[in-house]
Amino acid sequence: METHRTRRKRLGRRSALVGGGVAVAIGALLAPLVEAPAASAAPQADEVRHPVDYVDPLIGSAGGGNTYPGANLPFGMIAWSPTSTAGDQTNTAAANGYSYDTTRVRGFSLTHVNGAGCHPGAAGDVPIMPFVGEVDSSPTADTKDQKYAAGFSHDQEKAEPGRYRVGLDSGAAADLAVSERAGVADFSFPRDAPARLLFRTSNSLNGSENAHIEIDAERRKVTGWVLTGAFCGRRANGGENNRTTYYRLYFSASFDRAFSTVGTWENDRLSPGATTADGGEGYLTGADRAGRGSGGYVGFDTTRDNDVRMRLGISYVSLAGAEANLRAEIAPRASVADVAAAGRAAWDRRLRAIRISGGSEPRRTAFYTALYHALQQPNLISDADGRYPGMDGTPHRLERGQTAQYSNFSGWDQYRAQVQLLALLQPRVAGDFAQSLFNFARHNGGVWDRWVHISGATHVMTGDPSAATLATFYAMGVRNFDAKGAFDSLYRQATVPHPDGLSDKGCPGQCEGQRPNLAQYLDSGYAAQDACHCWGGAAETLEDSVADDALARWARLLGRTKVADELGARGGYWRHVFNPEATGTAGYIQARNRDGSWVTPFDPASDRGFAQGSAATYTWMVPQDVQGLAGAMGGRESAAARLDGFFHQPDGSWSVRGGDPLRYDPTNEPGIHAPWLYNALGQPWKTQETVRQIVATVYGTGPKGLPGNDDLGTMSAWYVFAALGIYPQAPGRAEALLTGPLFPRAVIAPAGQRRALTIGAPDASDSHLYVHAVRVNGRPNATSWLDGSFLRQGGSLSFDLADRPDTTWATDPGGLPR
Prior knowledge:
- By secondary structure, this protein is an alpha+beta fold.
- The protein has a domain at about 50-350: Beta-galactosidase, Chain A, domain 5, CATH 2.70.98.10.
- The protein has 19 helices and 35 strands.
- The strands form eight sheets. It has a twelve-stranded antiparallel sheet with strand order 1-2-3-5-6-7-8-17-12-11-10-15. Strands 18-30-31-35-32-33 form a six-stranded mixed sheet.
- A hairpin with a 7-residue loop joins strand 28 and strand 29.
- The longest helix is centred in the C-terminal third of the chain and has 21 residues, at about 535-555.
- It starts with a helix and ends in a 16-residue tail after the last strand.
- Mean pLDDT is about 95; it is low at about 1-40.
């Protein structure tokens, strides 16, 4: 059996063959990523020096994690990764193009989204496939991917931050490395067989409306674009509404040698010698799309040199933008190794925002890979010259003071953990992201969409996560965006009904109304199940309550007391859907009709009135008012007993892996904050053991190391916070809840900030997980939470950990989180 060490050596030798070239000085290659270093405490002897060494991009690539292993940079535009196939050219083996368990690929696509749950997910644009053999039929006609795809072995695959390499069973190999908006690839071929490179321009994961390719043999260039979109466009729950186009991706590829042959195809017609082709695939799947589409190919004479180098730039604005991005970011003679080294250094800088000490190798790998996944988004969509595609379909330029336009906002997921980590570690990016979302809203008639992909409003999920997100950024000290303008716009969305709010188009999963039937909501104090034009009335009420509470806190920080009082009252609307007699023995969140009646029959295990979760899960989704929820349940003792039943089976065994609608589900967002609720219920030792149980059994290393869809870094951010021993208390706030850290020491050094947060837990281990005492800046802290100033301003946090529960620490009713 080949060991990991020997496999790396063999891949390294092949890389030396396919990644050769003149080494160049490219220290400025990724200059936009360099930020002023933060102040930090003195390093420890066992502190991780280079976090990038502990990243395994294959974690989460099986078991529904929907991550991808290809080359990318933090917040980058290009993400060059394999598109796998299970025998259907109109589908893929996993939501975002790659499945570890499916070792056959039909190309290496230029764009990806991390961990989205729709299948196929999004992007996967312009798969480029090294093919060994003659192109004697249309690749689009190969609907089962039998000829123009190839298998591979994981022994011939190596994924690392900024670089991806694989050897195919055909004898071809690909070695890919990227900057933010461009990339370099080495494709190697057997010397004794035809060498061809296929550009499947129309074959995005979700299909395409149209695509274009142009081959310029004289200049050794291939250029083109794909017109596509359709995120979640095939889901049964409203998917038909999203079978629409909303962006165009341009690409420009140049080669280090002449073409020996060229050709194109349109549908089933192959045109050898042709240099242009057009045609899309549509947005359906299976027989409704099979055999449609266009692309082109170029061939090479590899008898003397079997290594082909390609340099490529992309843009969402124009072909000229793609070429300018390439010129701006990658030197003309830069090799794959050069670009990969710069990319690796860029990742190392970002990951060094948290420097841990101690811990086992697997724990370090799980931690830094989670941080890697959490920092993949938002994604850059502006060109090097500052232009980007607007939601109105026209190009725009960055606002004054804005350094980048970002997109890919999985709001319903990210507002619970990922945006807090972004604000803590990368406040400048967070501010640019906030401004980006505001820019999109202005292009979109003032409407803030809850799931933005590139420049498209997809309407996916429920609630108003933009409000919660921007309020969180502001609470955590992010200021580099138009906070007043953004607040005014979000307040208007929360108070002025919009015509889309009365539409059922796209419902239930992609309802167009971002505050559905707002007039009824404001009149009744809840979203009526029979009149809300939403996914589920109970879920919508809870989501809007969270959003309004967050807006209220933001308003108070802005000095708008009257507005804060108004919105704060609306933050309590969750009470209008809590039925204290839902089952006769216990109260639950339950959907209501317009006339005030409860929706029946009621079953705590049912998702009726909810979105991707049961009543049993959603009943805990009141992070802004845990004391109020406890009171509604009969008091903190009663609430804690119920929470025990949420995490355990009746026999006392743990139930934290999911699959039981009556209990905790670590694979989806509505309940992921629940382990920390014990802090507010006066039993923080149960938070400590519950979080550690989830960390130890649900997360890990290997392809199945994530519990479910990573959802643009949300599940990974959960793990990062859990490992540090802190967790966001509620959206719109900077307070943090405490639990026992995994590592003896961690230094958090936010990018561009002259402050650091040091977390010490010298006794941290698998057995010492219970908190006995805490000190903040050297002073005893008798509460299980931190004031928001700690995350904003920095300081030291020290834990005294024990191997058994301390049932007295942080239990004083007067000091519980509120």
